[in-house]
């Protein structure tokens, strides 16, 4: 599933062709993705000018001068395509702009979603209501994390994946940040010293920033809007590297935790 860096990369790729431009044509080519498209999507977006693009957790936001916000989630296999040569059977939403650009939301597995709400209703949007702070924002710091983890005995990896604690973190980048900090993914969150939590916050920021710079990681069907693949996978320290050597020379291990694969070094991470 595309994680925060992939969504951030997507938003940045869409911005040059959408921001400041009027939507001249909006077309849904099927009734639904994971859930139905808004019934008034075409009416409310056609003729509107895109004023701003942003991201919240793993959701992309497209705001218009009509005080509407289109919220998209890429699900398992979704991606935006800019000026595709042909519209394919998996291109389920088409946007055209006054500059002549065509954008297609392609989602072969249809696990993504598109919502359209009023801008002033954004804070109360159900998927956002319980989200924790953004990991790249100022509210996410060692003090905040220590308070959220106080007395918690669940593994630190599971706690970091809890979107109520911090929004947008996914399996790949949590594994990478924990390795960078030398923390065993199974360590109870409430037993990690504040100094190590400060380092963990720094590592999360470093890993996410590097992944965004590299265009994200390529998993299955993900690609950037320009069609290029993300290359952060070439920099993975432990994720997806079971049986290979860690930088210390120890073999990287994998185990299943809550249905997800956890990759770690038994020597570096304690």
Automatic annotation (TrEMBL):
InterPro entries (UniProt xref): DNA_glyclase_Znf_dom_DNA_BS (IPR015887), FPG_cat (IPR012319), FPG_Glyclase (IPR020629), FPG_N (IPR035937), H2TH_FPG (IPR015886), Ribosomal_uS13-like_H2TH (IPR010979), Znf_DNA_glyclase/AP_lyase (IPR000214), Znf_FPG/IleRS (IPR010663)
The protein's Enzyme Commission number: 3.2.2.23, 4.2.99.18
Reaction(s) the record says it catalyses: 2'-deoxyribonucleotide-(2'-deoxyribose 5'-phosphate)-2'-deoxyribonucleotide-DNA = a 3'-end 2'-deoxyribonucleotide-(2,3-dehydro-2,3-deoxyribose 5'-phosphate)-DNA + a 5'-end 5'-phospho-2'-deoxyribonucleoside-DNA + H(+); Hydrolysis of DNA containing ring-opened 7-methylguanine residues, releasing 2,6-diamino-4-hydroxy-5-(N-methyl)formamidopyrimidine
Listed GO biological process terms: base-excision repair
Active-site residues from the entry: 2 (schiff-base intermediate with dna), 3 (proton donor), 58 (proton donor), 260 (proton donor)
Cofactor(s), names only, from the UniProt record: Zn(2+)
Keyword Hydrolase (UniProt): yes
The protein's assembly and partners: Monomer.
Residues reported in the UniProt entry to bind DNA: 90, 109, 152
Keyword entries, A-Z: DNA damage, DNA repair, DNA-binding, Glycosidase, Hydrolase, Lyase, Metal-binding, Multifunctional enzyme, Zinc, Zinc-finger
Ranges of residues in domain FPG-type: 237-270
Biological role: Involved in base excision repair of DNA damaged by oxidation or by mutagenic agents. Acts as DNA glycosylase that recognizes and removes damaged bases. Has a preference for oxidized purines, such as 7,8-dihydro-8-oxoguanine (8-oxoG). Has AP (apurinic/apyrimidinic) lyase activity and introduces nicks in the DNA strand. Cleaves the DNA backbone by beta-delta elimination to generate a single-strand break at the site of the removed base with both 3'- and 5'-phosphates.
Residues covered by the Formamidopyrimidine-DNA glycosylase catalytic domain: 2-112
Organism: Sphingomonas montanisoli
Protein name: Formamidopyrimidine-DNA glycosylase
Superkingdom of the organism of origin: Bacteria
A GO molecular-function descriptor: damaged DNA binding
Family: Belongs to the FPG family.
UniProt cofactor note: Binds 1 zinc ion per subunit.
């Amino acid at each position: 599933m595309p994680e925060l860096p992939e969504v951030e990369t997507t938003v940045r790729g869409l911005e040059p062709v959408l921001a400041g431009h009027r939507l001249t044509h909006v077309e849904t080519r099927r009734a639904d993705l994971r859930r139905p498209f808004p019934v008034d999507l075409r009416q409310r977006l056609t003729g509107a000018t895109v004023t701003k693009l942003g991201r919240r957790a793993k959701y992309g936001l497209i705001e218009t001068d009509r005080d509407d916000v289109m919220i998209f989630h890429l699900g398992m296999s979704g991606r935006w395509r800019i000026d595709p040569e042909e519209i394919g059977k998996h291109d389920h939403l088409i946007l055209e702009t006054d500059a002549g650009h065509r954008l297609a939301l392609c989602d072969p597995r249809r696990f993504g979603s598109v919502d359209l709400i009023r801008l002033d209703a954004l804070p109360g949007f159900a998927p956002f209501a319980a989200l924790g702070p953004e990991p790249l924002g100022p509210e996410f710091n060692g003090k905040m994390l220590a308070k959220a983890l106080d007395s918690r005995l669940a593994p630190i990896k599971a706690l970091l994946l809890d979107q109520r604690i911090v929004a947008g973190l996914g399996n790949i980048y949590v594994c990478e940040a924990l390795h960078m900090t030398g923390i065993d993914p199974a360590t109870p969150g409430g037993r990690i010293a504040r100094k190590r939590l400060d380092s963990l916050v720094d590592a999360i920021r470093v890993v996410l920033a590097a992944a965004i710079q590299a265009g994200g990681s390529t998993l299955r069907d993900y690609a950037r809007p320009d069609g290029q693949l993300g290359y952060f996978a070439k920099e993975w320290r432990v994720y997806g590297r079971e049986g290979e050597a860690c930088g210390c020379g120890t073999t990287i291990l994998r185990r299943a935790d809550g249905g997800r694969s956890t990759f770690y070094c038994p020597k570096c991470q304690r």
